[in-house]
Amino acid sequence: MVKNLFISVISQKEANTGSVEFQVFSFTNKIRRLTSHLELHRKDYLSQRGLRKTLGKRQRLLSYLAKKNRVPIHGRMNRIRGKPMNVPATREDLMIVNMGPHHPSMHGVLRLIVTLDGEDVIDCEPILGYLHRGMEKIAENRTIIQYLPYVTRWDYLATMFTEAITVNAPEQLGNIQVPKRASYIRVIMLELSRIASHLLWLGPFMADIGAQTPFFYIFRERELVYDLFEAATGMRMMHNYFRIGGVAADLPYGWIDKCLDFCDYFLTGVSEYQKLITRNPIFLERVEGVGIIGVEEAINWGLSGPMLRASGIQWDLRKVDRYECYDEFDWEVQWQKEGDSLSRYLVRIGEMMESIKIIQQALEGIPGGPYENLEIRCFDRVRNPELNDFAYRFISKKPSPTFELSKQELYVRVEAPKGELGVFLIGDQNVFPWRWKIRPPGFINLQILPQLVKRMKLADIMTILGSIDIIMGEVDRLEYLKEVYGMIWVLVPIFTPVLGITIGVLAIVWLEREISAGIQQRIGPEYAGPLGILQALADGTKLLFKENLLPSRGDTRLFSIGPSIAVISILLSYLIIPFGSNLVLSDLNIGVFLWIAISSIAPIGLLMSGYGSNNKYSFLGGLRAAAQSISYEIPLTLCVLSISLRAIR
Question: Is the Cβ–Cβ distance between 602 and 565 less than 8 Å?
Answer without folding.
Answer: yes
